[in-house]
Amino acid sequence: MPPRTCEETFRRLLELLLAKDMDAVADLWSEHGTAEFPFAAGASPRRLTGREAVRDYLAGYPDLMDVQTIAALTVHHTEQPETVVAEFTAHGRTIATDEPYRLDYVTVLTTRQGLITRYRDYWSPLAVASASGTLPELLGSLSAEAAR
């Protein structure tokens, strides 16, 4: 099977996310690929390096968030065929609160031979904390950081 295009790899990632197969999502990363979260705050990591770090990070995700649909997916191709920019909205429910949520994302994805070498995910930490019921903890950690 020929290597997947960057867009095909991203669409496969979303399919696996909806199937809650986090091991298979991690398997899309190259051995030394990175995941970056530039807007991360509080206890959330800003960078993961390597497939196994991504696997560890994703391991408990289905226990926190039940992603049920991906809506409004738009994939923008760049001048580099191995890089795409994707805009999408995830709808689902938060496991801890059983409340529905809607989160908007912009992701910049770079692949080589169908595997992710760099994943930059621009999501709102406030929206995630609100959806997951952890907004007070996030605000507390931000206040503690500002006090240092």
What does this structure look like?
The chain has six helices and six strands. A six-stranded mixed β-sheet has the order 2-1-6-5-4-3. It has 148 residues and is of the alpha+beta class. It has a single domain (6-147), classed as Nuclear Transport Factor 2, Chain: A. The chain has helices spanning 6-18, 22-27, 51-58, 61-64, 125-132, 135-147; strands at residues 29-36, 47-49, 65-77, 83-94, 100-112, 115-122. The chain is globular. The longest helix has 13 residues, at 6-18.
Keyphrases for this structure?
6 strands, globular, alpha+beta, 148 residues, Nuclear Transport Factor 2, Chain: A, 39% strand
Helix percentage range? 25-40%
* CATH C-level category: Alpha Beta
Helix segment count? 6
Query: What is the domain total for the residues?
Result: 1
Sheet/helix structural class: alpha+beta
Q: Major β-sheet, in short?
A: 6 strands, mixed
Give the terminus-to-terminus CA distance: 53 Å
Global geometry = globular
* Strand arrangement across the biggest beta sheet: 2-1-6-5-4-3
Return Rg in Å.
16 Å
Number of strands: 6
Our estimate of the beta-strand percent is 35-45%
CATH architecture: Roll
Order of helices and strands: HHEEHHEEEEHH
What low-confidence regions span 5 or more consecutive residues with pLDDT below 50? none
The chain-level mean pLDDT equals 90
**What name does CATH use for the topology?**
Nuclear Transport Factor 2, Chain: A
